[in-house]
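Task 17 of the worksheet. Students: predict the tertiary structure of the chain below and write it out as structure tokens. Keep your answer in the requested format; marks are given for formatting as well as content.
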Amino acid sequence: MGILILLPSCNSRHYWKAMKAYDDARYQDATKSLQQAVIQWPNDSMAWRMLGQTQLFTADFEGAEKTFEELDHRAMVSKQDRLDWATALMNQGKYGASATILEPLMVATQPDVYASVLWGKCEKQLFIESDHRFWGVQSFDIPEIPVASSPRISEGRVYFSSEPYQWGEAAPLARMDQQEMYVLDLAARDRRVMRTSQYSSWDVPKHDGLVSLSPDGRAIAFSRKSKDGLAWFGDPMTGGYQLLVAQRTATGDWTNPTPFPFVEKGYTFVHPTWSPDGSRLYFATDLPSPESQGGIDLWYSDRNGTFWEEPINLGPTVNTTGDEVFPSFDAEGKLYFSSNGHPSLGGLDIYSTERIPTNSESQRNWRDGDEWTAPQRMPFPVNTLSDDHSFALAPDGQTGFISSDRSGIDKIYQIKLLENWKTYEFTTLSSKSNHIVPRVPMVLIDEQNASAIQFTSDLNGLASIALPPHRNYRLEMKIPGYIVQHRDIAVDDLQGQTTLELTPVTALRDYNFIESMAGGQPFELALQHGPMATKLNNRERDELLILVDFLRMNPQMLLEIRTHEDAASYQDDLDNKTGRVTKSRAIELESYLLKRGVSSKQLIAIGKGTNELRNTCEPGTPCSNICHAENRRTEFRIYGLLQRMPGQIDPIPFTRTQDNTTPAQRLD
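Model answer:
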């Protein structure tokens, strides 16, 4: 009589140890055992699910996020999994990503109650009131000065800072270390600039970066780098930027600058700005304090004769855990500043707020400082996906300047208040079923000055955006499960409502669609690889499965894989003569398809490097990240070989040294 003995596997041992620890509320021990379990048995969805839940209990939200991502790749996630996943993301402040995870639950006929609560929290966090004024934005090119930043308007002149452009240096790190200030007369016919050190009426002392002249012209405030200061944030031991103030004497000369009394060594004190009446000095600093909200905050100090009062933080309405910098005022006393802590379109955005002088001290929610209105974000194209800052409005309130690196380097842009803007509506539909496609990310890029914005259709497939007239844009729609769509949009040709169709990847099972693509028409899948990336991530592997099915069902078809990279890392064409990154990625894509059972005779992998750029972002040319991302892509081409026998599809052995050959050349 045989005896069947069941020996517990190593994975089972780890799993049951985790269960026991979980029941005893020893979540750290449970996490360790579950991590061992998923290593031993990576397809155990229950172990992944419990690991994510225990990581939530121990407040390891980043770990829980990665765990649920892995679970989503390996198994079908449940409703509870999505709720836990969204919770992990929200606890990291990733409300946009959390909304994407919750979306399948919200499009249901009767959404889950708890999912609706989480969705509402995401919407609340992502919402910020927009300034209702619309502005036109034009490049303000200054001869022989490619890099220009921090404009200020005073007495019909614009003052700005600049430094020589050097390829490969990050402009944001230089915004506090731009040694030269320039002045330009706005009334002059030509744009001839002078250094302020040569400008007789404003011979400023030695400074680093932004300089602020008081409204009466009798005082000047500026930053100067400490002797050993090296970077954006001051080194606690040796670095930092000190704030100095100088007074104009009766002879017109400046007194020796005196340090602002509350500066501490090793910290950053920058972007001084006078209030409209000259009684206060606003500035940005990363000085730690019980009042600090985190990062760089905005503060102010009242001037009492020749003395300065203790600085006061602007409070949690204005300041965030991010950075608030570049304060400025308009003629009405409205405060403008830049921040990456408030909900933004991308990077630093420009916001406005106003003091609430009517509130008594008992009604204030912030110490003894002023109360401020909730910040309003300036609309597109003042704000874009790039860093936008240094809002300077002329006294007429109709024109002004901003700084932005939307072209790849800091430049000055002229803004003008417009009245003839129009709001356009878009509806995203499936081209096959005509059903609504919700939550589609869309990117618009201005053909003229690279101003870019990303917006997303709602759960009903609707999106709206206000655009200025006479502009042309490039539109990209990229969402998993659909073929990437590109479209040129001329605003003057748009109707009030426009339908945007997306083709699902399942169209590759449709013979008519395949026939229309079989002549080598390029198409893209929603592959989200970053700069210089060669390895596939889990989401990309999932997206490629449709190609595996297509090629295995159609052995007579040949697929060309053509990978492209951006030129952000290359100073000139010689740097990228090998196209190493794209060749490596092409090999990675080909290898994955081969492992999935696709015949090698159906594949051609080509690495094109930067030889086929979509735009003008050539090596060594300053460009924004979003424009570089346009060039970073993988294209697929289908070639129908219905008249050839399978053994004749690829008579020449494929070698990766032939990356520059075309399919036609390969088959001759």
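Marker's comment: Confidence is low (pLDDT under 50) at residues 1-8, 170-174, 229-237, 642-668. Residues 228 and 313 are 27 Å apart (CA to CA).
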